[in-house]
Model the fold of this input.
Amino acid sequence: MASGIQKTDNGWVLDSTVAGVAIDSRMIKPGYIFVAIPGATTDGHQFIADAIERGAVAVVGERTNLSVPVPYFVVPSSREAAAELSAAFYGFPSRELTTIGVTGTNGKTSVVYWITALIRASGQTCGMISSVMNETGYGREESLLTTPESPDLQRHLRDMVSHGMTHAVIEISSHGIAQHRVDCVDLNMAVLTNITREHLDFHGTMDNYVATKSLLFERLEPSSLGAVINADDYYSQKVMPRVHSPVFTYGMEHGDLRGRIINSTAWSSEVEITHPEFRITVELNHPGRYNVYNLLAAVSVAWRLGIEPRVIQEAVPELPKVPGRMQIIRAATRPTVIIDYAHTPDGLMQSLKTVRLMTKGALWLVFGARGGRDRGKRPEMGQIAATWADHVILTTDSPNDEDPGDIADEIAVGIRNVDASKLRGIELSREKAIHWAILEATADDCVLVTGRGPEMYQNFHGQRVALSDVEVAKRALDDSWHPKGVDGIGIH
Done:
């Protein structure tokens, strides 16, 4: 193994001379293996020469008949190979952890945060990988992807083991499954929160989307702790027959573990949780029925892990707020502003329903839609906006390579189909749009800003532009602050 790498019938074998694995040539250091991945916009095979110049000792790729001056291994799938190589390089760290994966359209991040909190409340150590923040033992690290690429994911898991952690909770997107990022991660348990319309630009159909989510559950070993599934979700019925491990269900209508809302306010819910072996009542200091479902998912996992109901009951009132998820910003004599990540039709409807409960006056909504994503959901989200909000201002999200005005126009079609008077206007500067809503809203009103949550950048034709909805809202609530060109706000 002069190159430090060998492909055998039993998998990849790496010796101690291999210094790392990377799928980005810019990350290559001397002694690394470079895996060339063909992508939607760029082909990693174009960067093989750059990787070798930077010190790559071997290259793995899908293209044949390439002249490469270091050992070159041709594979059917570079992404699968990247996952296998990364796991081998880091010594298959998931095998040394109790590993829980959380997938679903909505609620994944909250459930990851809350499972982590419940495990820690039981006195055990737990690492976390989420779309907002990763906690692996080296402090907190801001996430770049919901589910990291396989070299980063395996590195995070090894860091957890190195820091003495016993558990890991991973947020897993459908892209992460389809692109083999979580291959070679041995899951002890997988959670399904729900499946609603999302990512059809990538998956094509809902059947394909459901099938991709199902792969995570099909891979669970019969001897594992198995699947935790929302029994009240329509598509869960299509996933459960594909599971070959134990299945534990939860819900408010059906499930092994049931939740019942005893009392609710705009800000919290008192919930009775029952199972054949226990009954507890908890105070959930997070608004909305959907958060009760998130709670039931987290409690189900905790129970399956053997955490005592008493510990769960004591920990629930202290469950952490997730940045950018129903994040409430208040100022005296000004409207209440809520920043939420909701970016799917179902997510938007749930957010609007929840904010409606806390609104004395009018409910303002500021939102847009991602460019390059499922266009079919845009008019649907417009209809939801016009149904539940009193005033809607359309703006940009991250348009990527699309014209932001075209995106707004497609959403506006849905608004006008319900009630054209709800559309106050289109303002393509997101900063100005947020300011506009806050400026016009009264102290009894609520301004809901959705789509980006904790994200710090917008993407315009490959350019990242810094913008935080939270910081913009805080500045707009300050009477002394006015954005440049405020007098020109709005396209009516």
Remarks:
- The longest helix spans residues 289-304.
- Residues 480-492 have pLDDT under 50 and may be disordered.
